[in-house]
Amino acid sequence: MGKRRSSSYRNNDFSLLLVPVFFLFLFLDASIDATAASSSSPVNTTQVSIMTELSALVLLSARWNTSDSNPCRWDGVNCSSSKSNSFSVVANLTLSSFSLSNSAIFVPLCSLATLQSLDLSKNSFTNVSHQFFTSSCSMKAGLRSLNLSSNRLATPLGDFSGFPLLEVLDLSFNSFHGDVITQLNSLPNMRSLNLSGNRLVGDVPTGMVLSLEELVLSNNNFSGNIPRALFNYQNLTILDLSQNSLTGDVPDEFFKLPKLRISLLSGNGLSGNIPGSMSNVTSLSRFAANQNNFTGSIPSGITKNVKMLDLSYNSLSGVIPFDILSPVGLETVDLTGNKLEGPIPSTFSLTLYRLRFGGNFLNGTIPGTISDALALSYLELDNNQLIGSIPLELGKCKNLSLLNLASNKFQGPVPDAINKLNKRVVLKLQSNNLDGPIPIVLSDLASLSTLNLSHNSFIGEIPREIGNLLKLSILNLQGNMIHGSIPNSIRLLTSLIELNLGNNYLTGTISMMPVKLSTLLDLSHNNLSGSIPSDIQFLTDLEILDLSYNNLFGEVPTSLSKLQSLTQLVLSYNHFSGSIPMFRQCVDITTTGNPDLTDGTGNNDNTPANDEGLPVEEGVSQIINGHLITMNSIHTSAIDFMKAIEAVSSHKNIFLKTRFCTYYKAMMPNGSAYSVKKLNWSDKIFQIGGQDKFGHELEVLGKLSNSNVMVPLAYVLTEDNAYILYEHVHKGTVFDILHGGRSNVLEWPSRYSIAFGIAQGLTFLHGCTEPVLLLDLSTRTVHFKSMNEPQIGDIELCKIIDPSKSSGSLSTIACTIGYIPPEYAYTMRLTMAGNVYSFGVVLLELLTGKPSVNDGIELAKWALSLSGSPDQKDQILDTRASRTSATVHSQMLSVLNIALSCVALSPDARPKMCKVLRMLFNAK
Ligand SMILES: *[C@@H]1O[C@H](CO)[C@@H](O)[C@H](O)[C@H]1NC(C)=O
Ligand SMILES: *[C@@H]1O[C@H](CO)[C@@H](O)[C@H](O)[C@H]1NC(C)=O
Ligand SMILES: *[C@@H]1O[C@H](CO)[C@@H](O)[C@H](O)[C@H]1NC(C)=O
Ligand SMILES: *[C@@H]1O[C@H](CO)[C@@H](O)[C@H](O)[C@H]1NC(C)=O
Ligand SMILES: *[C@@H]1O[C@H](CO)[C@@H](O)[C@H](O)[C@H]1NC(C)=O
Ligand SMILES: *[C@@H]1O[C@H](CO)[C@@H](O)[C@H](O)[C@H]1NC(C)=O
Ligand SMILES: *[C@@H]1O[C@H](CO)[C@@H](O)[C@H](O)[C@H]1NC(C)=O
Known about the structure:
Elements: H1 2-12, H2 45-58, E1 77-81, E2 88-94, H3 106-110, E3 117-119, E4 145-147, E5 168-170, E6 177-179, E7 192-194, E8 199-202, E9 214-216, E10 221-224, E11 238-240, E12 245-248, E13 262-264, E14 269-272, E15 286-288, E16 293-294, E17 308-310, E18 317-319, E19 332-334, E20 339-342, E21 354-356, E22 361-364, E23 378-380, E24 385-386, E25 402-404, E26 411-412, E27 426-428, E28 433-437, E29 450-452, E30 457-459, E31 474-476, E32 483-485, E33 498-500, E34 505-507, E35 520-522, E36 529-530, E37 544-546, E38 551-555, E39 568-570, E40 575-579, E41 588-590, E42 597-598, E43 623-628, H4 633-638, H5 641-647, E44 654-657, E45 661-667, E46 673-679, H6 691-702, E47 714-718, E48 722-727, H7 734-739, H8 748-766, E49 782-786, E50 789-792, H9 797-800, H10 832-848, E51 853-854, E52 857-858, H11 859-866, H12 870-876, H13 879-882, H14 886-902, H15 913-923
Helix pairs in contact: 8-10, 8-15, 10-14, 14-15
The structure holds 2-acetamido-2-deoxy-beta-D-glucopyranose (NAG) (7 copies).
Membrane topology: Single-pass type I membrane protein
Main location: membrane
Signal peptide: 1-37
């Protein structure tokens, strides 16, 4: 058991690994082993009656087939035959994810004296019954393993004495609070203790039995120094102190822990040198001390034993030890974000597969010996001062799937050899001095999803063969010296969502563009001529269109105004004529420098009446199923599914369209209004996994209750569509209120209360037993119930969208441009830290009054670039709000600091939502 646990532990914690095959069902319930031991021997009758009593309490979840009289065959029940006689007894109970919350079940459980292992993880217990802690609980005598993780236990840690045989105790991911002093001291057989993910404070506990092998205390608020007494636990194999508030130097005594395999100190405020004794522990295979305040140089020999090393985001300086990458068996080294200087070491291990040196002061060239790193799949050397050419030898690293050399001083052409690497998913070479033609063999890279060659000196034409890159989702060639026309083959890039060809010398007309384009089409600053082609109307998901500084002429096609997703249209400095068609109010249009273009914008009508020209939606297919989720009688009596379906048959009822959904207003027979959200079921990225599963997911969400979250009340499934019903509270979205052209400026107290409301909603979602992660959090997905009462919408998307059905990485489907955390470019895992980033962008919008992308620059990047000096920080704020009073100004500065921490480049550096909420509260 110990073995299995630790290997899954390792995988879970390694969130940045490049995962080439994407499968994302974050919330699939851990499936229960349905293999109840069907023992042939009869079951002890006392135990049958205990189990029957228990079943009455567990039946709720309908998981136990009580018509079967042998409880050993029930789901999650394992029996063993008793040694003393021929009867079977219950040995293990695995009731994980059984939707249990009634602590009354501890009464029958306590009489199961034969129990060895009890797993109640992933339920909703808020407390453990008193009996559990008394000596009358006979179950405790034989129990070896107790798992209460992922519940809602929100008490101080009780006294766990009286489990003479207990070896494994997992209390992780609850809300235990207070300190840990003696509560775990009387467990003489304990091998593994996991308290991760609680709210524990005070010193790191050191009173447990000295034979302890696994100690996991991460994600709490333990403070003070790392106690020397920890080094008396000479049998420790796992020590995880990450994500706490520990400070001070780390005792250099790791040689006293000769069996240590995993040592994690990440995300604290530790300082001083990286302990050199780490290199003396021969069993140590993983060491992470990232995100602290470590200084000094990297001790030599640190990778002698360690196979996975993460020292990123500290203040380490000096030269990288010359032999750090050479040991056989080495797997990953991450030194991102330090102050390291000098050359890249030139001896590479055959087994190294992940190397991150970005954001340092490294100089010199990439050594040709990199070809020895045959396993290398992930190489990041960006933001250094590296020179020379991209070495041919990189072409030997056949497994390379991410290569990021951006923002260095590389020059010369891209060697053909490196373009033949067909596992490559992400290639970022921007902001160097590379030249020569765009390498035509790039078209051999069939799996390429991101190609960024911007801000170099590439010449020649865009090769026709670019159309072979069928998985490409982001293509950025901005700021080069590319000429010729845009090849027609570009339309073949059916996965492309972002295309930036700005600032080149392109000529000819605008050819047909790939219809999936959604985040950006930038053709600005070229010499394109002709008119805007009418087929631009097919780019229905396009958000930003920039055609400025070209020689385009003719009328602006009215079909452009039908693009429901468009938020920004830049037409300046061309030769357009006629009048500007009517756009929705929230579209930001720039037309300066077109003398013949008359301003036709008057009373823009933002209502869907604009849709009149569109064909009425085809007849609604027959209802398959209407389901109520809510039990609130106000809703159950009002909702009429036929009325909901009638409402969605007319475009007139549309009041909002977002990336994945269309919202309709439906009037019920009793006169109350409901919002009906249509999901386009036939879109292939919706992976509903059967209608039952869809219903189940929605019903789980329907039980959530928080005034800042839009909770589903009911749903209807038809053959082609899924419709979800909500209370109709639509007073616009945060986006409408901030950027919708309201005449009066939103004052700071309102903005603050909006921020606070969203933070409360998100903290709630992240704090659920099974946290709900948002696929798309932006000012457009937050609706107002009333002014100052924001509600987060689209909470179900993460459960029903399968990114693997889309192209490329998570960033191509998750979120709206401007809100996408940088790490989503190479991971398929939605994370809380990713949501925190998006929330940070929402905060920045409230602070600046600017949209998430402004002039093609992401708000978060812009704000980060100005965050260095106090003077500049001031410039970030919306002066219309910040100049109203000194108090407002200082509040806004405090909130700005919170926003900046949320949009930190490193996911580890971002605070968790509960902390964000606290900081926001304190900022008032
Ligand atoms: C059944 O188990 C109980 C303890 O739970 C024990 O006292 C009793 O003797 C057992 N009965 C039989 C028939 O084995
Ligand atoms: C429940 O158990 C009874 C009796 O063993 C059996 O006939 C029936 O098929 C079981 N039902 C399910 C759904 O497994
Ligand atoms: C009970 O679980 C333990 C691990 O906790 C395992 O070793 C044992 O085989 C299980 N017993 C049965 C009867 O499944
Ligand atoms: C460590 O484990 C060994 C072997 O199991 C045991 O002999 C020793 O007593 C343990 N050390 C401590 C401090 O418990
Ligand atoms: C690191 O140290 C600096 C000053 O020594 C301090 O301002 C900063 O808060 C520390 N960072 C962390 C993460 O503790
Ligand atoms: C590590 O071990 C070597 C001998 O193998 C010893 O000389 C050195 O002092 C040890 N270093 C630390 C920091 O314990
Ligand atoms: C690299 O930087 C170091 C100082 O950090 C300097 O001494 C050395 O000459 C530089 N090497 C190259 C090749 O620029």
